[in-house]
Amino acid sequence: MGRWQERQARQRLRADLAMKLAGTQPYVDAGRQGELVPPLRAWLEQAVAGLGAEHEVTLELRYRLAAALRATAAIAESGEHAAAVVAARERLGTNETLLQAWALYAEALDNQGRHHEAAEAWGGLGELARNCIERGDLVRICGAQRAAALCHAERFAEAEAEGHRLLESAATRTDPGGVSIRLSGLILLSVALTGQGRAMEAESAARQGLVIAMSESGFAATTNAHVLHVNLADALNAQGRHQEALDLLAVMPRPPRVTTETAAATAITQSRALLAQGRRDEALQVLRAVLTPAEQTFGAQHVRLRELHALLALAGAAEGQLYG
Question: Could you give the CA distance from residue 270 to residue 245 in angstroms, rounded to a whole number?
């Protein structure tokens, strides 16, 4: 095949794959991304062979595959494909594909229990976003996600500093977005302060957040209120106020959906209070209810999974009891 024919073949392949990419959007909109994994694998293979590993269409396909794998909970493989897109950032500049892939990469690191690396990845994405016009929203999201990863890594003082930065940025906003940022800051502070043994300050931060969250409406407000109830209960546990913690968890808002991490954090906080009261069987029941989803979602070194296993061991649960 001559050079002209090769160029024509590449152009046809590019156009064909671009059309197929456009055809995936209805699946994304309908939440059916998992169905896209097999065709995306095939199209990516064609793109690498026919267009090259760093062609923009190839990189877009790789990002879409990473997102589809994330939807099927194939976290490690999703992170690998997202990392390959991030590695081509000089070619991509600051386009949306790179930004979305970088977020997937950072999230995958955190879910695998690679919390220190996740914090660095979120920090890197935040730096990139600072150079983008009108991407202050992404800068703040990255700050919040970095702080969460820092909490997972038990780098609580750094997470606290990030939480204060969020509160400072919220102080300049009078729109609903400012309320959301303030809530994020207070949620993070309540975790970071408890982690540093400053449970009374953590209690204050969580209660401030609850005043705001409980005055709002909608799914996000209910989710924030749920998380703040858990964080407040954790701060109460740290002060030895275990029955207050259990009473609080009994009346907290329950959104239709919670993340696996939120469910695990709730179970951990509740079981700690139950174990402190000698209510071992109830604690075991709470822990077992979230163990399988957590093991399916997180890598073995994820802080939530390690905490679940430690509490199960503390409760004296034998392996046969857990899986038998």
Answer: 8
**The token pair that represents 95 in the structure block:** 């386009």
Three-state DSSP state, 262: helix
- 91: Cβ contacts below 8 Å, ≥ 6 apart: 54, 56, 59
For position 140, what pLDDT does the model report? Answer: 87
Task: Please say whether the beta carbons of 211 and 189 come within 8 A.
Answer: no
259-279 pLDDT, tens per residue?
999 999 999 999 999 999 999
Number of Cβ atoms within 10 Å of the Cβ of 201: 17
Give the position of tokens 């808002």: 253
The position carrying tokens 């402190």 is 276
H/E segment holding residue 71: helix 56-71
Which amino acid appears at position 105 of this protein?
A: Y
What is the rounded distance in angstroms from the CA atom of residue 23 to the CA atom of residue 6?
Answer: 26
Question: What mean pLDDT do residues 161-190 have?
Answer: 86
**CA–CA dist 201, 265 (Å, integer):** 20
Question: Taking the domains of the chain in order of start, what are their residue ranges?
Answer: 174-254, 258-316
**Helix residue ranges, H only, 72-175:** 75-87, 89-92, 96-111, 115-130, 136-152, 156-170
Which pairs count as long-range contacts for 177-180, CB under 8 Å and 24+ apart, including other chains?
177/137, 179/212, 179/216, 180/220
Distance CA 150, CA 147 (A): 5
Sign of CA dihedral 315, 320, 323, 324: negative
Task: Specify the residue for token string 């820092």.
Answer: 150
Name every residue whose Cβ is closer than 8 Å to that of residue 46 and which is 6 or more positions away in sequence: 13, 17
Rg (CA), the chain: 22
User: How many other C-beta atoms are found inside a 10 Å radius of the C-beta of residue 1?
Assistant: 8
Q: How far apart are the first and last CA of the chain?
A: 63
Under the banding of pLDDT at 50, 70 and 90, the label for residue 323 is very low
